[in-house]
Amino acid sequence: MTTTTHSGPAQGHHAGHHDAGGLPGGLQISQDGYTLDLDRSIIRPGATRLRFRILGPDGAPVTAYTPLHDRDLHLIVARRELTGFWHVHPELGDDGTWSVRLDLPGAGAYRVFADIAPEALGRTVTLGADLAVSGPYEPLPVPAPATVDVVDGYEVTLAGDLVPGEAREITLTVHRDGAPVTDLQPYLAAYGHLVVLRAGDLAYVHVHPDGEPGDGVTAPGPGITFHAAVPGPGTYRAFLDFKHGDTVRTAAFTLVAGH
Questions:
Q1: Are strands 148-151 and 46-55 parallel, antiparallel or unpaired?
Q2: In a domain, 8, yes or no
Q3: Is residue 204 located within the same domain as residue 157?
Q4: What is the band of 259 on the pLDDT scale with cuts at 50, 70, 90?
C-alpha cells in the first residue's frame, strides 16, 4: 500500500519543470543557480524533523518566493521504488531554514523534491536530493500497472494515457460506496493535485487540474481533469491528492508511457 502524509490546507499552474538543457525537473540538487541544501542526508525511521535551505546564486538562503497554489514551497518525499509518497509543507524560519516534521516508517532510499518559484528567478524550479533512512530493508518492486485505486473506501479511476513529449488529458474520477463524489473540497486552491514520477530516475512532473474552485465552471467532482506531459518513455507512478470530508487522501496509479 502506498503511504501518504499531508501537511497544511501552493497560486499558479505548473506542469513539470525543465532547465535550459531540457532536463526533467527533480533530477538535480542544483539548477539555475539554486541549490537544495539538506541539513542531514541520513535519518532514522520514525518521527523526525527535517531541516533544509534553498541557497541562491550568491550562496545565501533564499527567503523571497512567489506562492504556488497557496504555498511558497511544496515538499514531496518519495521512496525510490515509488511505494511511498508524502506531500508536506514546511515552515520557513527567519534565517532561511525550512523545517518540517516527517514520519518515514521504514528504512530505505528516498528522494526529496522542493517545488519552488524564487522571486528573483521569476519561474518555477524543482530541485531534488537523496535521503537515506537507516536500517536494513528489502527494496520492493514498482507496483504493477493499474488505473484503479481504493483508498479509505474511495475508489478512484484513471482514464487517459501518458505519451512522451505530448500533453495528454488525464481524468481521475472519485466514487465512494459506489456513488460519485460531487462535493470535493478545495485543497491548495484546486480540487486535486497530481504528481507523476518516473521509475528509475524519478523524473518529476507536477500538474494542477483544469479550472479552479469558484470559477463558475469547474464542478467539485466526481471527475478531475489534468493535462500531463511526461519527458520520455518508461514506467510512471501518478499520485493524486484530493480532499473530502475534511481529509486529504492520495490515490496512486502505475502507468506505462511508450516510445
A1: unpaired
A2: no
A3: yes
A4: low
